[in-house]
Design brief:
With 85 residues, the protein is mainly alpha-helical. The chain has helices spanning 35-42, 55-72. Helix 1 (35-42) runs antiparallel to helix 2.
């Protein structure tokens, strides 16, 4: 390359601006038949009305609710159900 030839500098590329407005997820939630789990999963619909930055809080809340529901399965019940023959 000749020193008299100017070097072409790349033009700066602007990062796309992320719109923080509400973005409906449009996911369908099927019922599981377990009222506790269904109530927690229904909370996912709240993310449709929040800005993108608020989705994480909803996901964490749902995760915590599902984890609590699973943990409750390990708690011994005072009157265990005995299987019938």
């Amino acid at each position: 390359m000749d020193e008299s030839t100017p070097t072409r500098q790349p033009e700066p590329v602007e990062a796309p601006q992320e719109d923080e407005g509400p973005r409906p997820l449009g996911i369908g939630i099927s019922t599981t038949g377990h009222p506790g789990v269904d109530a927690v999963l229904a909370r996912l619909a709240d993310a449709d009305h929040l800005a993108v930055g608020g989705h994480g809080e909803v996901y964490e809340d749902v995760h915590r609710g599902l984890r609590d529901t699973l943990t409750a399965l390990d708690v011994p019940h005072p009157h265990p159900v005995t299987p019938r023959s």
